[in-house]
Amino acid sequence: MDSISTAILAISLIIIMLGMGLSLTVKDFTAVFVRPKAIFIGLFSQLIILPVIGFSLINVYELSDNIAVGVIILAACPGGPTSNLITHLAKGDLALSVSLTAISSLLTLISIPFIINLGLQQVLGEGTVIQLNVIQTVAQILIIVIIPVGIGMLLNAKKHEFALKMLEPVRKASAVVFILVVVGIIIKERSVIIAHFEQAGLVTLTLNLLTMAVGFMLGYLGQLNLRQRVSIAIESGIQNGTLGISIATVLLSNTGYAVSSAVYGLIMFLTAGIFIFWANKHIKT
Prior knowledge:
Blueprint: H1 3-21, H2 26-34, H3 37-60, H4 65-75, H5 81-89, H6 94-124, H7 134-158, H8 160-188, H9 193-221, H10 226-237, H11 241-251, H12 259-282
Helix pairs in contact: 1-5, 1-7, 1-8, 3-4, 3-6, 3-9, 3-10, 4-6, 4-12, 5-6, 5-8, 5-10, 6-7, 6-10, 7-8, 8-12, 9-10, 9-12, 11-12
């Protein structure tokens, strides 16, 4: 996405995150950390299983160097703010999703350079040291996720009746934004979408489906409830494609590496839409 599209999406997410906070209380987060099993399972799926699957796929599929490196970049970038939106629409455990996003975003400041440098060595046989902008990454999570959710929670605590009235409108607005993002990506990328899909479609679809399935199964094996399993599946399978594109184009100065993230950005919204439909059929609120 270009800078204007990214800014529009960021503003939309800020508003939606504020709305999501209307349904959350401090108790929700306390419950997550008092019984931290779900957090540990989610982080294990995001930071260990996801990269392992990514490295495995570049050895299974016959890929160009650009696409292979792009897959590794994706596998190093677990869910960002978009995963919180999708969890909200899927009626997953939103407090768990927000907590995983915040914690994993800080941990990836260390894991992303390590994973990508390892991937560059495997694919290209050379080492390239990359460093993430710590202040920018932390600021993004604070501005887009933490602060808006916190304001929403404060409104819920102080103006509970208002919060209750806004829950359904916020859910509908979130769905509209979700659909507009998908349509916008298709329109914007229509001229190159077929060529990109031929290069990276199958491997990125496999990455998406496998990581969601494994995240869900780990939650099942860990005896988590359905809402928690849904959250972990989404956090595991919805990678931060925008961050992946930024790493490829800004830090590695290679737009070819960004193709996998661009294709994945479209695929994940389509598969997420199907998963949201399924989850809404099975989760009763």
